[in-house]
Amino acid sequence: xxxxxxxxxxxxxxxxxxxxxxxxxxxxxxxxxxxxxxxxxxxxxxxxxxxxxxxxxxxxxxxxxxxxxxxxxxxxxxxxxxxxxxxxxxxxxxxxxxxxxxxxxxxxxxxxxxxxxxxxxxxxxxxxx
Amino acid sequence: xxxxxxxxxxxxxxxxxxxxxxxxxxxxxxxxxxxxxxxxxxxxxxxxxxxxxxxxxxxxxxxxxxxxxxxxxxxxxxxxxxxxxxxxxxxxxxxxxxxxxxxxxxxxxxxxxxxxxxxxxxxxxxxxxxxxxxxxxxxxxxxxxxxxxxxxxxxxxxxxxxxxxxxxxxxxxxxxxxxxxxxxxxxxxxxxxxxxxxxxxxxxxxxxxxxxxxxxxxxxxxxxxxxxxxxxxxxxxxxxxxxxxxxxxxxxxxxxxxxxxxxxxxxxxxxxxxxxxxxxxxxxxxxxxxxxxxxxxxxxxxxxxxxxxxxxxxxxxxxxxxxxxxxxxxxxxxxxxxxxxxxxxxxxxxxxxxxxxxxx
Lengths: 129, 360
Hints:
By secondary structure, chain A is an all-alpha fold. In chain A, 70% of the residues lie in helices and 0% in strands.
């Protein structure tokens, strides 16, 4: 498919219009959204939503407690314990690797892959860096 | 479908034919566009060599017979997936570096789970990055490493570098990395501490959700998405354009959530306190002073970056203590800097050449 010739393409004015409208909308929106009032209103709306969500979470936690079921917080705490164990195991793994390396008891695996002898182009051609 | 006359005046019949052809192609390919799934991304062969929670470390299969001694580790921004470094064959920074003879590793971030809400800057810069560097050293057998950090990945790399001055870092490349956070434009306006209650957000949500992050990015250019869709329809006949559009669209939609404490610290210490710029940032009990960074540093900046404005990223070079430092300003935006046409033509070769001279 040949590339359109912009100077004669009937769609070209439309493309320019799209570019122009996009710039204008972004420009106007950025001006409005850059005001203190917008920031305040946006964050007030957000805080309202978060308060509602917090209220719902609290109500749900109370309800779950009443029916003797674990709440989201309980499950989260359990997941965090597992996460902490994972992190501790990762640290122990590193320590063990250090011990193995320092005592020389482990068979050090030779790095695989191509040789690490590549020279930069300037050195290959003899040019100064 | 070209005019046989050979003159500058195009043949009207050919033009009409081309317009009709493109219209038909738009209709046929438009149907394909609607019914087909997401494009495949991140196709360059790799191994996952380490994973823990949100952290993934990839090792890409070398493509050269002989590689530079010093391996390269790319650190992705915490808000997005790392496949923007490897969108498609021919549009992949990873593939380019591999072909140029680098041994390439990438840090990627999965969505942090609710149990990871307590992850903080300390975890990223004093645990995740050092652990990955250690794994790279084991895999490569080399003690030295070059880091390439993109956006917030650049900030993490800077904090790591300033906090580990005796570490194995040999070179540091930052890609559009914010340093003066008081110049973050609308983002700073919207997170004005007089109105923005970061504690309520983090304490209520735990992990800051994708929709929240994505809304912030979208609001910076509210008309961009619609205009991009119109341009995609206009170029529907052009397979390469459509593929690129869909890959970028997929990538921007796959924005990942942020661990709450990390978000809180970013807001308090970076956005409000501007402590990375003032040299007062304290991470893991250490003062992070960029002047302590002495390794060679390169910084690539996008001239029309609407997420990290030029004024926010430019102070990096004057802040670091390195004597060997280079800045490169490219036309383009925040994302096109790493995967757009200018990246392919200018940024990748510049980074590759700069690193090559310092990777033996």
